[in-house]
């Protein structure tokens, strides 16, 4: 009896914190039992036909294998690709746009830029709202916030009727100068809700109240376009978790690398469009700080894409204007560059006989040919199998077994078209994949003005360790750091992420002593809004407030974000603000004008509520001989070589060995080329170094 009571008490003390990330091929789980510090991880194939079902499957497996008790889950953080996939696949809600009469072409005109100005065949993407679904409403708000023409409510009523007749499920309201005064948008929105309560409505100032009507309109359109699918998905998620007895309030990872609750996510959908990619960078940043790495290039390769980001000073970089499919997103987000090359990217030969890789992907269904799930086309994963780097152990925590014959058959069909041996064709696929990633990374480095030779590459995701070392070698990088569980870094990001809310107001005024009271007042209003937001998320601890302003020289078309100290506002220190702008401008453009007149456009506030303080144990390094599990033949491009195969579980801190080698583990396979020295550090990271 006493033993049973002790067991019940131990179970009652159990505290599970779970991070989940859904990608194109797998859903990843990272579960921490805080009482013991035990970390459990898992990958489960996604179910595109029933998004969310794989989540329940994973929780069941974790309960069976790891003893996870859903009723003792105190933190559940979820990242999903439902929103971004809705945009990429163009499966969003039919929308109507209500704007000022005479400005119906706002989303057609955009910024009058072509995606590729040097291509004769370049064309702009079709807008998410067709021209016949844009309705001009006679109304006008002046730039100073005074109304010169009230909205014509009869025109609103006619537009609502036409929008419904044309099949609209929702309406976006975006009027001129709503950033200054949103009263007209609010009145039209209220009228639509009264006339058509079955339609959802979003106004541009509600979503992101900034100057520039195109950016404001496009951000609101993206929010409305994904709203029904995201809201439906999150509602089903809450119901499924409740049915499993999960007490934790579900949280979502955001594009800015922070968190928000699921209830807010149903309306602020645009904030979670890049949640998966941002979560991966947050997880990688946390791991980089733990390992003492100051400058890191992250490489997240999943089934459909490769994502790159820079971590400087242990912190991710942020920006606006990230592309969601073919459309820019004008809210703060973790800066991530992506390319359509992943483990499931399909290789093909075009009409000119040229070998191409991606962007089409086999996804999880049917997946690469070697998965044995019906795929017949050669993919990057199949090429890794044919070369011998992959296929020597179960994959994805036993979810998959590699069929080498199916991989050889798929790549062999491609090799026959190229007139090459199958191994050479497979090596060519890998070479193209690496070269396409090389081009994208070089562009990222050029934009950021950094020398990648000063950085450490951190590959993660299911495919990152497969190709990461080869990419690092091509880039001239001398260090590669693979975490203990690379396949679930994005899920880990949810575990360690903070609550983070971004707030903005456009004030548009010259920077001077006379303008400081308005800036102070705006900052204080945003601070109140930020603290209220944290309280709504259930956070009652201390908050961190980060102030910045978008500023420019008078006459410039675009502004730069400058980090400011609130003390400069309270103390009236205009000189410090001017100096901060000059220094930022100098750093970005290598020039500044000390006599130039400065204009302030936006005041920004980022409010942060710290997440749980987690840490993983460190283990002292010891010198032990490393004995490979076995040796195997691998085609390296120069011929077949016999290389060592190591089991990651058998490697302890202090273990060292040389490439070429293969390291297998439950969530990925690490391919290590010749010339690399490998060592396991105190955090169980696998560190590769190349001679310069």
UniProtKB/TrEMBL annotation:
Any one of the GO CC terms: cytosol
Hydantoinase/oxoprolinase N-terminal domain location: 17-193
Source domain of life: Bacteria
Cross-referenced Pfam families: Hydant_A_C, Hydant_A_N, Hydantoinase_A
Domain Hydantoinase A/oxoprolinase stretches: 216-500
GO term, biological process aspect, one: glutathione metabolic process
One GO MF term: 5-oxoprolinase (ATP-hydrolyzing) activity
Domain Acetophenone carboxylase-like C-terminal: 518-683
Name of the protein: Hydantoinase/oxoprolinase family protein
UniProt organism field: Mesorhizobium tamadayense
């Amino acid at each position: 009896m006493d033993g049973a009571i002790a067991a019940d008490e131990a179970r009652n003390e159990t505290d599970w914190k779970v991070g989940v990330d859904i990608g194109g091929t797998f859903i990843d789980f990272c579960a921490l039992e805080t009482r013991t510090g035990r970390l459990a991880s898992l990958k489960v194939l996604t179910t595109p036909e029933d998004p969310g079902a794989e989540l329940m499957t994973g929780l069941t497996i974790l309960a069976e294998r790891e003893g996870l008790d859903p009723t003792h889950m105190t933190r559940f953080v979820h990242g999903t690709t439902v929103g971004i996939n809705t945009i990429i696949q163009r499966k969003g809600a039919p929308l109507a746009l209500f704007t000022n009469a005479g400005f119906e072409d706002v989303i057609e005109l955009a910024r009058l830029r072509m995606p590729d100005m040097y291509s004769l065949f370049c064309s702009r993407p079709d807008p998410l709202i067709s021209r016949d679904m844009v309705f001009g409403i006679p109304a006008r708000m002046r730039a100073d916030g005074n109304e010169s023409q009230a909205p014509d409510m009869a025109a609103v009523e006619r537009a609502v009727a036409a929008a419904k007749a044309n099949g609209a499920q929702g309406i976006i309201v975006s009027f001129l100068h709503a950033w200054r005064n949103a009263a007209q948008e609010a009145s039209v929105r209220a009228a639509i809700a009264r006339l058509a309560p079955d339609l959802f409505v979003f106004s541009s100032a509600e979503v992101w109240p900034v100057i520039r009507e195109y950016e404001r309109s496009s951000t609101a359109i993206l929010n409305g376009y994904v709203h029904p699918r995201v809201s439906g998905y999150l509602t089903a998620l809450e119901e499924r978790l409740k049915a499993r007895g999960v007490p934790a309030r579900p949280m979502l990872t955001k594009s800015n690398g922070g968190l928000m609750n699921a209830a807010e996510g149903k309306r602020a959908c645009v904030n979670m469009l890049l949640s998966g990619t941002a979560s991966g960078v947050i997880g990688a940043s946390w791991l980089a700080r733990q390992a003492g790495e100051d400058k890191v290039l992250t490489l997240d390769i999943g089934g459909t894409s490769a994502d790159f980001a820079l971590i400087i000073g242990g912190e991710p970089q942020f920006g606006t204007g990230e592309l969601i499919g073919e459309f820019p997103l004008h809210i703060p987000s973790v800066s991530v560059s992506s390319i359509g090359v992943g483990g499931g990217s399909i290789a093909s030969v075009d009409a000119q006989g040229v070998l191409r890789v991606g962007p089409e992907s086999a996804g999880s269904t049917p997946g690469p040919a070697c998965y044995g799930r019906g795929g017949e086309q050669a993919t990057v994963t199949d090429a890794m199998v044919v070369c011998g780097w992959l296929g020597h152990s179960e994959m994805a925590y036993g979810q998959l077994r590699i069929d080498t014959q199916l991989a050889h058959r798929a790549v062999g069909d491609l090799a026959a078209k190229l007139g090459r041996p199958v191994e050479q064709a497979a090596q060519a696929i890998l070479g193209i994949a690496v070269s396409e990633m090389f081009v994208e990374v070089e562009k990222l480095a050029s934009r950021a003005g950094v020398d990648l030779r000063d950085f450490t590459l951190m590959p993660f995701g299911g495919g990152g360790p497969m190709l990461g070392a080869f990419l690092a070698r091509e880039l001239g990088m001398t260090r590669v750091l693979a975490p203990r569980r690379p396949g679930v870094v994005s899920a880990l990001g949810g575990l360690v992420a903070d609550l983070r809310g971004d707030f903005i107001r456009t004030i548009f005024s010259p920077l001077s002593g006379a303008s400081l009271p308005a800036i102070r007042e705006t900052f204080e209003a945003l601070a109140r809004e930020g603290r209220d937001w944290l309280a709504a998320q259930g956070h009652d601890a201390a908050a961190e407030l980060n102030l910045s302003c978008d500023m420019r020289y008078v006459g410039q078309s675009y502004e730069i974000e400058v980090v400011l100290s609130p003390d400069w506002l309270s103390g009236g220190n205009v000189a410090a603000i001017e100096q901060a702008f000059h220094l930022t401008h100098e750093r970005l453009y290598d020039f500044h004008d000390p006599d130039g007149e400065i204009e302030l456009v936006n005041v920004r506030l980022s409010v942060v509520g710290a997440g749980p303080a987690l840490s993983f144990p460190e283990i002292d390094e010891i010198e032990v001989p490393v004995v490979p599990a076995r040796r195997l033949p691998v085609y390296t491009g120069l011929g077949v070589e016999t290389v060592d195969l190591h089991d990651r579980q058998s490697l302890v801190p202090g273990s060292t060995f040389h490439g070429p080698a293969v390291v297998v583990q439950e969530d990925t396979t690490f391919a290590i080329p010749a010339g690399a020295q490998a060592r396991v550090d105190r955090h169980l990271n696998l560190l590769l170094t190349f001679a310069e």
